[in-house]
Amino acid sequence: MTTNPFTHRHLLGIQGLSPSEIGFLLDLSNGYVDQNRRADKKQSTLRGRTLINLFFENSTRTRTSFELAGKRLGADVINMQVSTSSVTKGETLIDTAVTLNAMHLDALVVRHPDSGAVKLLSEKVNCAVINGGDGCHEHPTQALLDALTIRRRKGRLSGLTVAICGDVLHSRVARSNIHLLNIMGARVRVVAPKTLVPAGIERLGVEVFFDMRAGLADCDIVMMLRLQNERMSGNFIPSIREYFHFFGLDYAKLAQARPDALIMHPGPMNRGFEIDSDVADDVERSVIREQVEMGVAVRMAVLDILTRPDREAV
Ligand code: ASP
Fold first, then answer.
1. 142 Cβ contact partners less than 8 Å away, ≥ 6 residues apart
2. How far is the CA of 2 from the centre of ligand 1 (A)?
3. b vs e for 252-267, b when ≥16 Cβ sit within 10 Å of the residue's Cβ?
4. pLDDT tens profile 206-250
5. How far apart are CA 305 and CA 24, in angstroms?
6. CB of 219 closer than 8 Å to CB of 243
7. Interval 153-182: pLDDT, tens
8. Whose CA is nearest to atom 4 of ligand 1?
9. Would you say 50 and 170 are in contact if contact means Cβ atoms under 8 Å apart?
10. pTM higher than 0.85, yes or no?
11. For residue 310, how far is its CA from the centre of ligand 1 (angstroms)?
């Protein structure tokens, strides 16, 4: 059995993880993919453990897959509806965390609109905290599930050219992916209009393209991002029509990528905004549904690793 190199108490982001920690999580996730494809999907690894999903923002995939992941490992899972909780009565994030902590949780998955809120909360509780997306900062399990999808399809991450396209400015998915892909030795490009690229992004180790055809040239992976309207104050694009014309993924632009390039999208998709519907559903090239499947496996691996009693906390 391989020794577990993952010694962190929480999973707050990808930044700062090592290649061996990421590789270990991906290997563990791979095993859970097989388990999830069996008729009997249930295991008792987390029997007696309690997981709470605390989501201050909407979610379909992340919340459901953490719930499934916890249940498939045998944990008791509670989904806290923030809209019906005491948060609406003015309870602060910290007080909510301290209250939940008193209930002896083992893991807490948190999604919050503010960057850094999940880290703050992790300092107030005794259980493992998993970042389910904090503002524009990080969404670590999304990057892990994307990496697992790519690795299973391409056999590797190292040496691949990945184009991350669209609203990079507001995207925590982009940030976590940039960190992970760089750590694992891929070449990362970001492709977007100037208004949707954060200043100084090159410092994260990416090549920036303002032209979609040039950015997609010979890439192995095309990762599309949603326009995050809920995080925009003001106008970042002239119109949806123009945005789709220049930056929407259609077959004409995709023709610049390698013939075996994979199409990815974290969801939710806005068909006709950032991606053409036929491209999104292309069974030969699109792995968007596979990403969802990998999401459950990755979240099982993360819950497993963070609740192991032999884990040495750092
Ligand atoms: N679901 C992803 C997130 O929560 C991507 C998106 O919302 O566009 O960041």
1. 62, 133, 172, 173, 176, 177, 266, 295
2. 33
3. ebbebbeeebbbbbbb
4. 999 999 999 999 999 999 999 988 888 778 888 999 999 999 999
5. 10
6. no
7. 999 999 999 999 999 999 999 999 999 999
8. 133
9. no
10. yes
11. 33
